[in-house]
Amino acid sequence: MTHISAFKARLFKQYLVQGQIIAYPTEAVYGLGCDPLNGDAVKQLLTLKQRPVEKGLILIASSFDQLSPYLNLNDSDHLQHMLSTWPGPTTWIVPAQHWVPTWLRGQHASLAVRVTNHPIAAALCKEFKGAIVSTSANISNKPPAKTPLAIKKQLGIDIPICSGDLSGLQSATPIYDLITGQQFR
To answer: Is the peptide bond before 36 cis (omega within 30 degrees of 0)?
Structure first.
């Protein structure tokens, strides 16, 4: 599995701090990410993907502590169930705090979150000291990119790409509603 140097992690942290969109490997595909609390960056990302804001986005993190400020979860059984799957490739839809921006939640009162076990994605979150947006690197309704070249071909712009291996998951991470147990993907 590919890892990331401390220098490269600091460089990509600066891109995020500056409000740029970055691309990076995840469990199954390359992801696009940005600072989730930078509304301009998130809106740029949504425009680039041609993704409606109503759908909402996923946040990834290197630890639960990076996600907990966004979540409104009072049930310890649900929390323990979610934590038992992390770090790993399971995404959970969890009730969001009232302040979480609609550009992250979409039309929902919840937020999709994951503590990733991908070493590069986790290192980026750790260096950033917070969760980052994670959405597949593609135009909506097109196949997700699995290589840096595929990102450049499909998106047609030059964004910083943190190259590395995918974790080998054959399809996108499963998404479950934490409260109802319903699987969405």
So the answer is: no
